[in-house]
Structure formats: C-alpha cells, structure tokens
Amino acid sequence: MKLKVLKIISLSCVLAMGITNMASAATPSTQKALTHLKVNQYYILYTAPKAPYIDTKQRLMVPLRSISELLGAEVTYNAKSKMANIVFSNHQLRLTSDSKAAYLNDMKITMDTVPVIYENSMIIPLKIILDAFQIKANLNSAYGYINIQDSRLLKTRMFSNFEEFDSSMNSLVDDEEAFVPLQTKITTTAGKSDQAVQVTITAQNITEKSIPTGREDLHPVFLTKGKYLLDSDGAWPDSKARIRPSVKKDEKIQRSWDFSVQNNDPLLYILVKGRTFSQSINN
After folding, report:
1. Model confidence at 236: pLDDT above 70
2. I want to staple 75 with a disulfide (CB 3.0 to 4.6 A). Which of 27, 57, 68, 93 is the partner?
C-alpha cells in the first residue's frame, strides 16, 4: 500500500518545500552541533541562536528562549538590568547575566556558573531549571544526551498546533525509538528578503536489526515564530516523496532537507523523532 505524508505547513499558510536558489554573492554560514538534549519524545537539535552545548565545565547550556517555548514556562527578560524571570508550575526563578546568584521564590541560590549573553540572548545552565522546577532528568550514557521525561512539558500552543496536524501518520508508526540523532549541520545563505537553509542530520539505527526500504522515518520539525515545516511526501500535486532506502543494523545515516525562511521570521528550533513505520510509504 502506498501512502503519502504531510507537506510543509505554516501556522498561517501552506508553504512549498524545495531547494532554494542561493544568491551567488551570498556567503553561506554553517553551524554544527551534537545532540545533547531530549525532551519527552523529541530530540532538541537546535535552539536559536545556539544549539544546546556542553561548556568547559561539562554543564549543559541552553538559550533562555527555549525554556519558555519548549518547556512551556513563562519567561520575561529585562535587557537593561539583564535579568530573567521564569515562572513554571507555581514557582518563580530569577537569574541575572554574569551573576552566580539566583532566586527561587525569593530564596537565594548560588550557582557554580553564570548565565552568559550570546547574540543578545541569555544562555543558562539547564541544571538550575531542572532543580528549581523539580524536573527529573537522566543521562543516556550510551549516546551522551540528557533525557527529560515530564508530562508537564511541551504543552504550549505551538506544540499542540503542529502535533495535531502531524498526527495523521501516527497509526503507522512502528517504533518511536528507532534512531538516535548524533549531529546536525545547518547551512544558511542570506538573500535580500529570505534565507536558504539546508539541514543535514546524522543518526544511528538503534533497533538492533535492519530496516526495510520505505520504513525509515527520521522525522524533523523546523520551527520559526510563525511557521512549522514538516516532511513533504507527495501529499500535494507538485510535491515528491522523500526517498527512504533500507537501513542496515547499527548503520549511521544522513538525511538532508532544503527550504527557505523569511529574514524577519528566522529558524528558531529543530526537533526530531527517530521513528520507523510498520509498512513502506515510498511512492
């Protein structure tokens, strides 16, 4: 049976996914990042302006914005005082750039590091968030990422919107934990009004068996402030299904996606599920 999955969708309109012509005078910019974080069913591969990363003291650092929009906390930031206020699950946490002092419900906490500013965004240690809001996490020692499982998380309107749209293929999912993404490479080329974006994800088959042709579903979601972009698999007249070749046991694969974003609505997040389907969906 041949099935078709979903095209790229916007919160406000439908977009066409395809390779964008890059301006010849533009200089591509490339970011590479390892996978350090998983929240519930999603691996968090990128959070603007910088993917989650391990600092020199082995702390996992994340952009403040991701705490608000990914975890579902209410966040305000005062650029003048460089102070952030985070409210989640009836608790309030205050952080200040370049200060080890934090305040949880007005009780002072001394951190072993400080929030830093990167491209006008505050980057904070994830551990202070986990401890303050009693969010349980563990380290996946085999692949080196922090695994967070908490039913309170990922409940924002943004997640509800694209998960509702994306749910049509859920009945065909055979294994939700078939792949672990290892590395992401993002190359952007600026145009006058938009950016051409190429995202390449390297992932490993962890099913301990070979995966037949058409069943691999390394399933990313690319998010801007106003749009979410998903795989295009022939669901529209001018779209073509992504090729899904067979995958050997323990094999590492690379998959790439090309699209464009407006300069005033840049790429904010890349999330991915590493799944397989119960049957082939190749055209």
Report:
1. no
2. 68
CB 265 within 8 A of CB 272: no
Per residue in 33-84, pLDDT tens?
A: 999 999 999 999 999 999 999 999 899 999 998 887 788 899 998 888 999 9
**Residue 143, domain member (yes or no):** yes
- Bridge partners of 62, per DSSP, are 124
CA-CA distance, 273 to 120, in Å (whole number)?
Answer: 30
Say how far apart CA 269 and CA 89 lie, in whole Å.
23
Q: Token digits for 176?
A: 């939700």
- How would you classify residue 89: left for phi > 0, otherwise alpha for psi between -120 and 50, otherwise beta? left
Overall domain count for the chain = 1
Domain that holds residue 31: 9-59+136-277
Q: What is the pLDDT, as a whole number, of residue 66?
A: 84
